[in-house]
Amino acid sequence: MDWKLTPILLSLVLSFVPTPHLRASEPVTGETPIWRDAPQNDAESELDRVSRAYVRLAKDARPAIVQIRVVPQNDTKAAKNQQPQGSRGSGFIIHPDGYILTAQHVVDKAKEIEVRLADFQRVPARLIAADAQVDVALLKIETERELPVLPLGDSDGIRVGELAVVFGYPFGRESSMSLGIISRPGRTYQDSAGYELIQTDAGAYAGGSGGPLLNGKGHVIGMITMASERGSMGFATPINVIKRMVPRLMMGQKLVWGWLGLQLAEVSLDQARSLGLVPVKGVVVNSVLPGQSAERGGLRSQDIILSVNDTQVDSPRDVLRMIGGLEAGRVVNLLILRKGQTLHLSVPLGKKPESQKEVEG
Question: Which end of the chain is more exposed for a tag (fewer CB within 10 A), N or C?
Fold first, then answer.
């Protein structure tokens, strides 16, 4: 029996002996190679130069991007000496002494705040001030070294189609970079903290709130505060609005925002025709809340608000944003259309109730 197996085993062994000088790129059968090795001396392409620019931008920006870890006040596990399960967001350093910007909703009702730096160092953070209206918070950490910072740019000059870069810690994981364009430039209002969000198709996901939106120069032009459900769109607060607030936040000031006390609606086509508003413009006052600043200032139901502080308004959202960015006590100048006549009203803003919904101005 043994002599019959010997030739079979020998043939199997020989069949597995490799060819001594066969290279991976040489053909096994015929003349077609399995793959072709890339040449090492190709000339640099334009895309190579663009790629290097992105790499430099990431190298310069990432050291100043941080992760925000929050233990909420109602965390029951912390009371049982177990690992607390808090929320996580993003932020970025704006001052080498340890001042950090993030979104207010990231640190809302926080019992403890911890910051993880880009080098994985974890340090406690102190909340200096926060504002829910603009959704911005200023944190402070203590370190023995000077920290890297991100330069703040100009959000008023951005245009649709410009390069947009988002950095953050999506889903509470490692720092990431997403590339896209500006889809909508947003808007700020002169002498007001009111604004419209910047929209970008650079990816923004849960955990990325508070992260910076950068332009192609690596300058911060906004802070991510919202994202679409699938993460395909990000929305950012314009950095110019935040820059107006940072000095006061550093002093720990709490801003008291104003309101008029109105219920507003868009002007319908029928209303516009009957009033001769061509093209359609303005916002109609549906009702005036009793005892509020609008009533005291002389506003009436069915008035048409044409402008606020010399800025034309075309939707209730315009009025809400502009008024919501002014502090209580400020006088707002309104151009009103009432029964075919235009009126100028100067109305001091009252204090916005904490529980009042945004549908009322």
Answer: N
**Can you list the positions of beta strands (E) in 234-282?**
234-238, 258-259, 262-266
| CA distance linking residue 281 with residue 318, whole number of Å | 12
Burial 71-90 (b: 16+ CB within 10 A, else e): bbeebeebeeeeebebbbbb
For the chain, what's the residue count?
Answer: 361
Could you list the mean pLDDT of each consecutive 10-residue stretch along the chain, which spans 361 residues? Answer: 41 44 51 84 84 94 95 63 67 96 94 94 95 94 93 95 93 85 90 90 86 96 88 90 92 88 91 84 92 92 92 90 90 92 93 59 42
Q: How far, in Å, are 133, 157, 190, 191, 197 from residue 241 at the CA level? A: 11, 13, 10, 10, 11
Specify whether 209 is catalytic.
yes
Rounded Cα–Cα distance for residues 102 and 345 (Å): 38
From the list 87, 90, 105, 293, the catalytic residue is 105
231: left (phi over 0), alpha (psi -120 to 50) or beta: left
User: Is 75 considered catalytic here?
Assistant: no
> What is the pLDDT at residue 3?
43
| Residues whose CB falls within 8 Å of the CB of residue 244, separated by 6 or more in sequence, listed in order | 193
* Alpha carbons 116 and 128: distance in angstroms, whole number: 18
Sequential DSSP letters for 45-64: PHHHHHHHHHHHHHHHHGGG
- Catalytic residue, chosen from 87, 90, 131, 135, is 135
Alpha-carbon distance of 166 to 213, in angstroms, equals 5
List the structure tokens of 11: 């043939």
**Which one of the listed residues 155, 175, 178, 209 is annotated catalytic?**
209
pLDDT of residue 41: 76
Verify whether residue 105 is a known catalytic residue. yes
Q: Which pLDDT belongs to residue 6?
A: 41
pLDDT number for residue 11: 42
Distances (CA, A) of 105 to 12, 92, 102, 281: 69, 15, 9, 34
Evaluate whether 203 touches 178 at the Cβ level (below 8 Å).
yes
